[in-house]
Amino acid sequence: MELPPTDPGPRAEPAARPGIQVAVVMERVAQPNQWEDFSFRVSEVIPDEGIFGLAPRKLFDDGKHSRWLYPGFRIELFADECKGYFLNLTSGRPAWFVMWRLDESDPSLALPQAVSVSYIEGDRWMAAEERVDNVPLADTLCEWLRVFTNANFRPDQPRKQRTASFLSPQERDKLA
């Protein structure tokens, strides 16, 4: 009887997670009303193919409105987040979720911190009282997300119904 070799040979590299590089475009409005110095919103999330560089940069500024580009965010898809992707895709309006914060040293700047396509992750950020904006997800990226979700999503199993202990056995039989 031959034993298998102890050295399995070269190890296969783990499969890379599907992912995409994106850049976030933030818009700032100076003095939108008498109570605020600035208001901010995420304008769009666009694919970053490496042409934007690494540093944030101003795209436009007319004194009242300005737009800033923040490159270098990587979105990776995880099989254990598929429920969040599924909820996003079936929401009727699939979206990017962008968590951002005001710059502590310069309140005239808002800095994106993270980007996701998981509805549940966006909800976690909001529950932690972070600022989260969403913007529509492009159709081609919806399809990319849909293919991954369809291949990896396993719906939760229905939970076993507990016995209604406060009912008599005859009343429980009527409900069944």
How many DSSP helices?
4
Q: What structural class should be given to the helix and strand makeup?
A: alpha+beta
The average pLDDT value, as a whole number, equals 87
Number of strands: 7
Percent range for β-strand residues: 35-45%
- Portion in helices: 10-25%
Span between termini: 58 Å
**Unreliable spans:** 1-13
Secondary-structure element order, N to C: EEEEHEEHEHH
Summarize the structure.
The chain is α+β, with helices and mostly antiparallel strands. The protein has 4 helices and 7 strands.
Give an account of the 3D structure:
With 176 residues, this protein is α+β, with helices and mostly antiparallel strands. Helices cover 22% and strands 37% of the residues. The strands form 2 sheets. A 4-stranded antiparallel β-sheet has the order 2-1-4-3, with no helix packed on it. The longest helix has 14 residues. It is elongated and about 75 Å long. The chain starts with 18 loop residues before the first strand and ends with a helix. The N terminus is likely disordered.
